[in-house]
Request: fold
Amino acid sequence: MPASDPHRAATNLELQKMLWANIAELRLADAARTTRREKTKTVLVWGGSALLVVAIGTIALLWLR
Reply:
């Protein structure tokens, strides 16, 4: 078998393209997942803070009656 088989070179090139496309997709998916996690964390922190303020306000109002 010759060392420079054009069919084999084309197949290797296609496999490399598919591999790099897959890596790019995985990196994009990971970046999107990280963004979603950060947004979720922010919403939970602010929501929890707001809930705490409302709870403290309610307790204070009931305490002063």
Remarks:
- Helices lie at 6-64.
- The chain has one helix and no strands.
- The mean pLDDT is 91.
